[in-house]
Design goal:
The protein has 245 residues and is α+β, with helices and mostly antiparallel strands. The protein is built from eight helices and nine strands.
């Protein structure tokens, strides 16, 4: 296996994106998700779009991240709006010409045929290496715990703090970060917020929403719907973690 980036292999963009999504495609339907388009990554953050290739040169994993400034005079702590606000910070810094000092990982996606092989670990290591190579001081991650999909109604504060008998996090994705030396900073309760009509959610998730809370494929929290008002709102919590260099 080898890992390349979009700077050297822009031709791999479509194949890398076709590996799948984190959770469901609805994650990218929010305002922040719409900001991280493939074209913007090609133009602005191509060094931070990493692609793992198998021995035949086919993409088997991708890792996306954006550089930003943290901490700063107007940023004293990691945001409660997690993934959403980190993307906004990166866009603000780009527009303002502010030099970044931190890399924020947005997603690690492994090809279905390679899941369960531990490939996420070298992808995270590659992000840390890329941050160091480009003069950044830290890697932060708004972690979306994988196992939370099975318990969408459980509060993240309760779920994320569970430990196994060996002392490591019970959730396997949190545990992967912990084994690489990352420490939990805090829960970000509004990490991803997405709203849409009942028809939107049918398109995004395949589910016909009913009044109240609805569980959808790939969701780690329920979608709260009001059919009369034709609105469904999804708010998921994540967990901020920081990797040392």
């Amino acid at each position: 296996m080898r890992i390349v980036d979009l700077v050297s292999r822009p031709d791999l963009l479509d194949a890398a994106l076709n590996l799948g999504d984190v959770g469901g495609e609805f994650i990218y339907a929010g305002f922040s998700g719409k900001m991280i388009t493939p074209d913007r990554f090609l133009r602005h953050w191509s060094r931070y779009f990493l692609i793992a290739l198998d021995d035949g040169g086919e993409p088997i994993a991708r890792a996306l991240s954006v550089p930003l400034t943290y901490p700063a005079e107007d940023r004293h702590e990691l945001p409660s709006h997690g993934w959403d606000e980190a993307i906004q910070w990166a866009a603000q810094d780009l527009m303002d010409g502010r030099a970044p000092d931190t890399l924020c990982a947005l997603e690690v996606v492994v090809a279905p045929r390679m899941r369960g092989t531990g490939l996420s670990t070298p992808m995270l290591k590659a992000l840390k290496a890329r941050a160091a190579e480009t003069g950044l001081k830290r890697l932060i991650v708004s972690v979306r715990p994988i196992g939370k999909e099975d318990e969408p109604d459980v509060l993240m504060e309760d779920y994320a703090l569970r430990r196994r008998e060996d002392g490591l996090f019970a959730d396997r994705w949190l545990r992967t970060h912990e084994r690489l030396g990352a420490r939990m900073i805090k829960v970000c309760p509004f990490a991803v917020t997405i709203s849409g009509s009942i028809a939107d959610w049918k398109e995004w998730s395949g589910v016909d929403l009913v009044d109240g809370d609805n569980v959808i494929p790939g969701g780690i929290a329920p979608v709260h719907a009001n059919v009369e008002r034709d609105c469904g709102v999804y708010v998921e919590a994540n967990v901020w973690m920081e990797h040392p260099f």
